Amino acid sequence: MSDQHAFVVSPHARETELVHSFSVAECVEDEATLVMLQSLGVECAQGYHLERPLELHPALREGLGARG
Prior knowledge:
The chain is mostly helical. The chain is about 35% helix and about 5% strand. The chain contains three helices and two strands; from the N terminus they run αβαβα. The protein has helices at about 15-20, 30-40, 60-65; strands at about 25, 45. α2 links the parallel β1 (about 25) and β2. The longest helix is centred in the middle third of the chain and has 9 residues, at about 30-40. It is elongated, with a radius of gyration of 16 Å. The chain starts with 12 loop residues before the first helix and ends with a helix.
């Protein structure tokens, strides 16, 4: 993670630790960010570093088209 990147920790992070809620990080774009999040105890992450967006499944495309 370069100095250009910043991260935000929820003001509820302490409460999350106390009740052991599930934590999810979004927009993980590089290995350094993933490692840093793991060190903070983040349990789940998503972003370009882990996988690029996938095409919409045909059944979902049809369902969205039926809306209007």
